[in-house]
Every structure is written in C-alpha cells, then in structure tokens.
C-alpha cells in the first residue's frame, strides 16, 4: 500500500504516464484512489491494521498511526513489505537502492521523523534489495514480531533482520542545520 516514498518521488519526476509505466501500481501516482483507501481504513474500528506488500524488488517496513474517522481513537497501520526469494533489483535499481538504503544518505530528503522501521541487527540500513522472505509472529492474534530472511544474490550468504512490532524502533534522519 505505502510505497517507498523516496523512490516514488523520483518516479514522479517523470510525467504521470511515464511514472506508471515504471511502476503501474504506485499509489503516489494515483492520489485520489489512495485517499479513498485511507478513508476506508479510517472507518475501521480496530486498533491494528496489518498490510502485507511485496513484489517491488526490495523490502522495508513502516508504521503509520492515523485517527479514526470519528476521531474517537487511532489505528496503528503496519506495513510489512517483502519481495520474492528470487526477485532483486538489477542495474540502476540496485545502484539507487544502495544510495537510499543508508539512513544517513536520506538526509537529502530533509526529514527528521520517519515512518520506516529499523531492524534490530542493522543501525544504518532499513531497506534491502536482496532476495528475502518475511515471517510474521503473532501472539493471541496480535502482531508482535517480524523477520526478513535475506540472501545476497550470487552467493549463499544468508542473514536475517528482525523487528519488534510491539515497540518498533523508527529510523531517525539526522538533518544538518
């Protein structure tokens, strides 16, 4: 649902017709439909909304908190984005992700707060372009943890990133003054 905003903003540098040719499923290229979807979510009366997303050649996770339509409460929207085990970016996509995956490189976007979640194992990176598989951990129906099992292309080096969904750590961008 939520895209990786920084990549989508680059796509929008093209005209909308070209941007949707690059990624026909991007919500940022279709703001009216995205707004309708958010309004439908705001009508839910549940404290949690979990969105599984994928097939974008990279993985990241993010958390948004939105008010319900009647403003009586909030909905915690957690998006877990994973890609296929054999799907990873190539060429210019791989180069772009190398730049964007580092939190310190994101200073260029001039944001102090972030919806992106930081994995426990890596303090600088929060988006990955390696082949991966996501595993969700539930406790009494509530999401409490998430693991990304990752493999670098061209070798058998496997590693994983884990996330505490009860007390997630957000990526912080240190913006120069």
Provide structural commentary.
The protein contains four helices and six strands, in the order αααβββαβββ. The mean pLDDT is 75. It has one domain. The two termini are 33 Å apart. The strands form two sheets. The protein has a three-stranded mixed β-sheet, with no helix packed on it. The chain is of the alpha+beta class.
Summarize the structure in short.
By secondary structure, this protein is of the alpha+beta class. Helix content is 20%, strand content 28%. It has one domain (5-164).
Task: Tag the structure with descriptive keywords.
177 residues, alpha+beta, 3-stranded mixed β-sheet, 3-stranded antiparallel β-sheet, 20% helix
């Amino acid at each position: 649902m939520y895209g990786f905003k920084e990549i989508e903003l680059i796509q929008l540098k093209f005209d909308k017709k070209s941007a949707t040719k690059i990624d026909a499923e991007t919500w940022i290229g279709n703001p009216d439909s995205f707004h309708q979807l958010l309004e439908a979510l705001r009508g839910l009366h549940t404290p949690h909304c979990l969105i599984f997303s994928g097939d974008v050649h990279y993985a990241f996770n993010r958390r948004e908190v939105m008010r319900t339509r009647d403003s009586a409460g909030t909905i915690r929207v957690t998006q877990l984005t994973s890609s296929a085990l054999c799907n990873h970016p190539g060429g210019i996509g791989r180069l772009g992700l190398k730049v964007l995956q580092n939190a310190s490189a994101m200073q260029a976007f001039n944001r102090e707060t972030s919806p992106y979640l930081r994995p426990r194992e890596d303090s600088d990176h929060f988006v990955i372009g390696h082949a991966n598989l996501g595993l969700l951990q539930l406790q009494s129906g509530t999401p409490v943890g998430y693991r990304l099992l990752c493999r670098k292309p061209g070798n058998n080096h496997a590693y994983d990133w884990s996330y505490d969904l009860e007390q997630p750590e957000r990526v912080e961008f240190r913006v120069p003054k």
